[in-house]
Amino acid sequence: MAALMWISHAERPLKADELCHALGVEIGSPNLNTDYNPSIDTLLACCQGLFVVGKEASTVQLIHFTLQEYLRAYPDLFRAAHSTIAETCLSYLNSEQVRALSTSLSSNLHDLSFLEYSSVYWGVHANRDLSACTRQLALTLFDGYEHHISTKTLLKTHGMHWYAVDFDKPSMFNGLHCASFFGIVEIVAYLVKMEGCDINQVDSMGNTPLHWAAWNGHEGVVRMLLRQDGISPDKPDNCGRIPLHYASGRGREGVVKILLGRGAVNPNKPDSRGQTPLYCAAWAGQAGVVKILLGHDDVNPDKPDVYGQTPLFGAASNGHERVVGVLLGRDDVDPDKPNKNGQTPLFAAAWDGHEGVVKSLITHDDVNPGKLDKSGRTPLWWAVKSGHAGVVALLQPLAPAASRAS
Asked: From CA 305, how far away is CA 315, in angstroms rounded?
């Protein structure tokens, strides 16, 4: 039954050795004893064919999707599944063997195959069912958490800008960062009341707890953090981005509304590349957030970044037709505004072959389909260069004869 609980409630398919390690953990024990780990053959025999091990990925999976539906439909089959999984993961991370590991991800982790799952998903399960035991185990983990290997594992798997992180240096990612990342309101509420808590503490990427809560769309934690004395909701990270940038780019509409309700948040603030929250939302195709931001008087819908690219340019380059339509409906948006290379949103859409966006742009009276960039090339030239026949068919009848000949 324990094996079926893990297989049916895990956040991703477990590998066979992960399942065996999970079932060998004694909740609350300070040590891991691999002698307690059952073999996969034992588990297969106990479950009488109800799950199998995939040949290619070596992951365990229930024999049929209807079994998954059945197990989820009868939660009484497993007592407090999510809190049990969270407690198991936290006991694993709190063990002396794991705490003794270097924070370098190059450490030998051969015998610790459950490290990745427990580091990345314990908070997801805890957020669904936070028991008193889970809460205490989490607080134990947070004692010196910035020096725990699981911080690096979590950031590399689900962190923002992980590719720019030097994983050989301290992460400075502490317990409040982590609880905010997972959105565990009760633990955040406890931590912010602790003596010496710095509500604006930054990690190695310059992210505050509010950045992480906004990134993952945890509205309850965002509200709680904003209620704290001394909170800086407009504090930029190492990339110059404030929490509103991340909430906007990831489509966290609820968080965007909460942040915009604070007078201390500048909705038009550029990051280090000159990109505003609106640009981030437009580039990512978050039409709902774009509408929310455009409803704010302080937002400039045509503000270019350091490359001269406007939110419309960003949306056009990624083929986000809904966002393009919203921005084209604004009188204060120049649909033919060139970037520093003289290329307009039509150039971007043509280069990447976004036919729907090209159609929207060429039907606008203020868009010149024959416009030349600084290299003397037209949108048609770039569409031909990129091999986008559909876009070529749309632009060719509109291009000057000299351009068509070239």
From this structure: 13
CA separation for the pair 160, 151 (Å, rounded): 13
Crossing angle of helices 287-294 and 253-260, in 10° steps, is 20
Give φ, ψ of 190 to 5 degrees: -70, -45
What whole-number distance in Å separates Cα of residue 177 and Cα of residue 146?
10
- Mean of pLDDT over the chain: 92
Largest CA distance in the chain: 79
Q: What percent of the chain has pLDDT over 70?
A: 94
Q: Which residue has the tokens 């040590």?
A: 31
- In this predicted structure, the answer to whether residue 108 has a pLDDT above a threshold of 60 is no
DSSP assignments along 34-62, one per residue: GGGPPPHHHHHHHTTTSEEE-TTT-BEEE
Q: Which residues of 296-322 are buried (b: 16+ CB within 10 A; e: fewer)?
A: eeebebeebbeeebbbbbbbbbbbbbe
Which of the pair, 342 or 105, is modelled with greater confidence? 342
DSSP states along 309-372: --HHHHHHHTT-HHHHHHHHT-TT--TT---TTS--HHHHHHHHT-HHHHHHHHTSTT--TT--
Confidence at residue 402, expressed as pLDDT on a 0 to 100 scale: 40
Q: Residue 91 in 3-state DSSP? A: helix
pTM to 2 decimal places: 0.91
The answer to whether the CB of 118 falls within 8 A of the CB of 104 is no
**Containing H/E element for 268?**
none
